Amino acid sequence: MKKNVFGIFGLLVAVFAVTAIADPNFLSAYNMQNTVKWSSLYGVMSIGVAFVIITGGIDLSIGSVVGLVAVVLSFFTKIQGLDPIVAIGLTLLMSVVIGLIHGLLITKAKLQPFVVTLCGLLIYRSLSRWLTDNQSLGPVPLEGDLGFENLEQILMLDFIFSGQIPIGDFFKLPTPALFLLVLALAGSIFLRKTIWGRYLYALGNNEEGARYSGIDTDRMKIIAYVLCSFFAGIAGILFAFELGSVQPAQTGEFYELFAIAAAVLGGCSLRGGEGSILGVIIAAAVIRIIFNSINMVGISTHLEFGILGLVILLGVIGDEMLKKKMAERQVAASEKLAAELSGKSKNKENLE
Amino acid sequence: MSDESGLLLEVRDLKKSFPGVLALKGVSLTLGKGEVISLIGENGAGKSTLMKILAGVQPADSGDYFIDGEKVDFKNVREAMDMGIALIHQELNLASNLDLASNIFLGREPGNKGFIDEQELHAEASRHLKRVGLNLPSDTIAGSLPIGKQQLVEIAKALSCNARVLIMDEPTSSLSQKETETLFEVVKGLRDEGISVIYISHRLGEVKELSDRVTVFRDGENAGDLAKDEINHDNMVRLMVGRELSEFYDRDIHQPGECVLKAVNVVSPTYPEIPVSIEVRAGEIVGIAGLVGAGRTELLQTFFGVTPSLGGELEVDGVSFSPCSPADAVHAGLALAPEDRKQHGLVLPMTVRENASLPSLERDQKIGFLDHSKEKEIADEAVEQMKIKTPSIEQAARFLSGGNQQKIVLGKWLAMNPKLLMLDEPTRGIDIGAKREIYKLMEKLAGKGIAILFVSSEMEEVLGMADRVYVMHEGRISGELQKNQMSEGSIMQLATGGSLAA
Predict the structure, then answer these.
(1) Residue A326: inside a domain, yes or no?
(2) Average pLDDT of B467-479?
(3) Residue A124, H or E segment
(4) Which of A53, A66, B111, B477 has the highest local Cβ count within 10 Å?
(5) Do A212 and B326 touch (CB under 8 A)?
């Protein structure tokens, strides 16, 4: 089941090299820090959707969950004056509940994931706007902000979620990268080393086959949706601190599409059963660098989505062709084996 | 256009392979005008593969195919139909929402410029319906007809394309006795009109009644032909099995132990008004026979928690048990090797190792983590015990032959030490070598005291393997036969809704 990540890694190197050659400023410490930071933020979100896509499902509500979490967090800390650590706990709990509702609707009410999460997308977005009367707000005090309670704690959390740790004299590591590292590692271990990860791959490939093997497939699917929303929740908190100011109508908008694009480009099949965390986070980085590159090289930003679309399309076509080649090779090998085996049994019969 | 031999259809030395299997190792077949021949053989003998090649569904790898003495090479079904070869599929292909006339002329509607000439359509359709003895209005909706009549509509459809050869793949597998008789009348009538028929069936009684000649396949090769006066049950079985029956189905009768599965008035959701009661004891091999659609698969699925029972009581080893999912059933010590192993039995893209260990992962886990060495052990054991032919345990299951896939399914359940092993059509689509190994395994497991319950449509398999058989008809158990009462006649009698005459 091991998925080849060389292809996507090659793409990363290529995009990186082309951009660096086109504009040496790309390699500046400041730009690198930015690239690492944004790749990490999108990466965290994309890990979540990978679980769902591996089961053969989809989650379109990620962007709205990111937005709602960022809004609610800011609402709790700024308007309600809640202890920020409690606020973070509550918002994460909210994201878990959202995932649980998605999972239950999909498995028990047998609704289609597309429909359930599309409705989620609409509902959570409008909740964000309604809750704040569509006014922007943030979890951290901006200039001129008065009356923030728990200021000390908030500043500490601000450092944890969107700080920078100096490494050497020039480079400062953005803390979201540490989140990505830990979460990606945990996600990979979950998928590759635990029985539940194996169950997700199995049911993504053949849900009925997995069920007939005694696996509680409904429970596993619910877990996947919970994980997806939970990762979106963590991303929402990271984004809230990073942005400082959350726009209820815009924060997180279209992020689900970036996450899904990263998952697909990173080797997940929307048919389910395939994909790895490493592939997905590399793809998330590729997408960020492409955007960065479009900016730096001076291509019209109106073209950025078009270019991204083309890159993903080419990547997926290449992947499909590679897979076909490999399948052909395996078929040839097994045919050879069959011929050998039947040849052998012939000989045996002749001897008899 | 007829050549000197007078043969309408002939194939010589046809070969066909699929990944992991040589399905046809060079078979030959001839068919004269107005001749009804039967093609028989065990599951996996290559009958259906040959029929698909004849009808242009798939090409052969090598070999010659002649019609009217001229070599043909069909690229698709349409080309075969143009030459008058029509395949009536085992599963019917009518659009159930359309009326009969539309079905018969689907894709060939009379009319012009995209407009259908309704009058012509219905007139022509009625003519063809009459030829197969259906006096129904041609605007009857296809889905409203019972399955036997739908089959006749399929034949009418073939006739409307001027079919000269009708290939019928197990046409009676879901028909009642009466519907079968009607079908035979129609086939005989068509033969008298000069239409040739290739008839495939597992029902040797039907074959004897209908055929002018019988061709027998075994393991992808010709095993022999029988002329009209040579057609009898023993000759057919001898050629199909290739040895004495007793040697192939090597059974020791074990003294059955305690009752392992006891079902009292269990109700499967497919037949919500029919309670079913059966018992299987330790060390016993119990068969469930019946026509396709009699509710046999559904019954096993209810026991296995796939479709939970609507009522009644189930007991496993004397403990009450009500499975709501296969997971519950597995925990209670049940195992099911399902009929559709590609959909239900295996996760095809996964490896032999991953498939073989799938049910036991939970048991062998180390606080949630996979136990890789244990997993490998289970896979190696399955490969060795079941003699699975695979380059390695890391080969994806999809690249193995049907027989080897079925062995993986059995291997994964053996690792769970089940109390009751249920098998649904255990040897469908499997070559003869693998088949014998599966029978041997069933025997061995019964010897160890495992209770075995299997569903089979293959008469010889039921007669050869079962210690006792339940026969089902339209959802109910129409009878139970002990070993000494079992015969093709008694089983068919019960399976088609009759009762046992004293």
Answers:
(1) no
(2) 94
(3) helix A113-132
(4) A66
(5) yes
ipTM value for the complex: 0.87
- In a shared domain, residues B231 and B358: no
Task: Return d(Cα B429, Cα B392) in angstroms, integer.
Answer: 23
Structure tokens at A260: 């899904």
**Is the domain of B248 the same as that of B237?**
no
Cβ-based contacts of B305 with chain A (< 8 Å): none
DSSP-assigned beta bridge partners for residue B280:
B261
Write the DSSP string, B95-120. Answer: -TTSBHHHHHTTT--SEETTEE-HHH
The three-class DSSP label of residue B58 is coil
Q: Is B340 helix (H, G, I), strand (E, B) or coil?
A: coil
What's the rounded Cα separation, in Å, for the pair B312 and B274?
11
Of the partner residues B369, B395, B399, the one whose CB lies closest to the CB of residue A194? B369
Domain match, B49 and B118 both: yes
pLDDT tens per residue, range A296-328? 888 888 998 898 899 888 888 887 887 788 777
Q: Which domain holds residue B32?
A: 7-243
Helix or strand or coil: residue A217?
helix
Q: Which residues on B lie below 8 Å from A1 (Cβ)?
A: 349-351, 354
User: Which pLDDT band holds residue B233 (cuts at 50, 70, 90)?
Assistant: confident
> What SS3 class is residue B7?
strand
Rounded to whole angstroms, what are the CA distances from B163 to B38, B155, B355?
18, 9, 45
pTM over 0.90: no
Strand locations in chain A (E): 164-167, 171-174
Q: Which residue of B has its CA nearest to A340?
A: B20
Each residue's pLDDT tens digit, B40-75: 987 778 888 899 999 998 999 999 999 999 999 999
Q: Is B399 on the interface with A (CB under 8 A)?
A: yes
Angle (nearest 5°) at CA A255 between A251 and A258? 150
Kind plus residue range of the DSSP H or E element containing A334 = helix A304-351
| B362 contact residues in A (CB cutoff 8 A) | 195, 214
User: How far off is chain B from A297, nearest CA to CA, in Å?
Assistant: 43
Q: Average pLDDT, whole number, for chain B?
A: 90
- Tell which phi-psi region holds residue B338, choosing left (phi > 0), alpha (psi between -120 and 50) or beta: beta
Q: How far apart are CA B219 and CA B1, in angstroms?
A: 35
Nearest-CA distance B160 → chain A (Å): 40
Q: Where are the alpha helices (DSSP H) in B146-217?
A: 147-160, 177-192, 204-210
Same domain? B222 vs B252: no
Q: Are B278 and B423 within one domain?
A: yes
